[in-house]
Automatic annotation (TrEMBL):
<feature type="transmembrane region" description="Helical">
    <location>
        <begin position="199"/>
        <end position="219"/>
    </location>
</feature>
<keyword id="KW-1003">Cell membrane</keyword>
<keyword id="KW-0029">Amino-acid transport</keyword>
<dbReference type="Pfam" id="PF00528">
    <property type="entry name" value="BPD_transp_1"/>
</dbReference>
<keyword id="KW-0812">Transmembrane</keyword>
<protein>
    <submittedName>
        <fullName>Cysteine ABC transporter permease</fullName>
    </submittedName>
</protein>
<feature type="domain" description="ABC transmembrane type-1">
    <location>
        <begin position="32"/>
        <end position="220"/>
    </location>
</feature>
<feature type="transmembrane region" description="Helical">
    <location>
        <begin position="32"/>
        <end position="58"/>
    </location>
</feature>
<keyword id="KW-0472">Membrane</keyword>
<dbReference type="InterPro" id="IPR043429">
    <property type="entry name" value="ArtM/GltK/GlnP/TcyL/YhdX-like"/>
</dbReference>
<keyword id="KW-0813">Transport</keyword>
<dbReference type="InterPro" id="IPR010065">
    <property type="entry name" value="AA_ABC_transptr_permease_3TM"/>
</dbReference>
<keyword id="KW-1133">Transmembrane helix</keyword>
<comment type="similarity">
    <text>Belongs to the binding-protein-dependent transport system permease family.</text>
</comment>
<dbReference type="GO" id="GO:0043190">
    <property type="term" value="C:ATP-binding cassette (ABC) transporter complex"/>
</dbReference>
<dbReference type="GO" id="GO:0015184">
    <property type="term" value="F:L-cystine transmembrane transporter activity"/>
</dbReference>
<feature type="transmembrane region" description="Helical">
    <location>
        <begin position="70"/>
        <end position="91"/>
    </location>
</feature>
């Protein structure tokens, strides 16, 4: 009966259309001001952490390997939501207070670094040892061979899975709503709390997430095709 009223009553249709239109811009603002910047910032920081962690895992220095393994193990072995709660709600109990957006950056960056390090480590291991030997044979140091020979090849290998990780990260930023970051899903919660149209508003937020991810997937496909053409040459 409820669905019947929605689809048959012109008044209900108009009311739902008005709510949809009035909610659209606040949700888009949340995406532009918080969701997308949060994803971009944390991905860049997380990528730096991932490279450093992967290199530490592959180094011959035992203490670095242990630290890197512990970091990856604890971040991959605990839920991201719990990590965010520890950073935002837990740290103030020991005198460390962090604002919600910074806490979200820290939490997401650490998570991206842990998961991304495994992608980058696998990419580095996929490069034949002969590439290292070729660099050493022309008097390159370890750092020079890594920078000039290994990392460029590993980058091409790691771009597809890292692109998938970024798309997942965009969706995961919705968890920041739990620590009061005013990103898109938080805006959806606030709007739905006012008009009680949870299905409509949450579906609208889901639609915007889907559009963003479709755009990112299209960009990923373009990048991969360009890399394929480059490799083919």
């Amino acid at each position: 009966m409820y669905l019947n009223n929605i689809f048959t009553s012109p008044e209900m249709q108009q009311e739902y259309l008005d709510i949809f239109i009035s909610s659209l811009w606040p949700l888009i603002q949340g995406a532009l001001i918080y969701t997308i910047p949060l994803a971009l910032i944390t991905f860049v920081i997380g990528l730096i952490l991932a490279v450093l962690t992967a290199l530490a895992r592959l180094s011959g220095i035992k203490p670095l390997q242990w630290i890197a393994r512990f970091y990856v193990s604890i971040l991959r072995g605990t839920p991201l939501l719990v990590q965010l709660f520890i950073i935002f709600f837990g740290l103030p109990t020991i005198g460390i207070t962090i604002d919600s957006f910074t806490a979200a950056i820290i939490g997401f960056s650490l998570s991206v670094g842990a998961y991304g390090s495994e992608i980058i480590r696998a990419a580095l291991l996929s490069i034949p040892k002969g590439q290292w030997e070729a660099g050493f044979s022309i008097s390159m140091t370890y750092t020079q061979a890594l920078r000039r020979i290994i990392l460029p090849q590993a980058t091409r290998v790691s771009i597809p899975p890292l692109s998938n990780s970024f798309i997942s990260l965009v969706k995961d930023t919705s968890l920041a709503s739990t620590i009061i970051v005013a990103e898109m899903f938080r805006k959806a919660q606030e709007i739905a709390a006012q008009n009680y149209e949870f299905l409509l508003v949450y579906s609208e937020a889901a639609l915007i997430y889907w559009v963003i991810c479709m755009i990112l997937s299209f960009a990923q496909g373009r990048i991969e095709r360009k890399l394929d053409r480059y490799i083919a040459k």
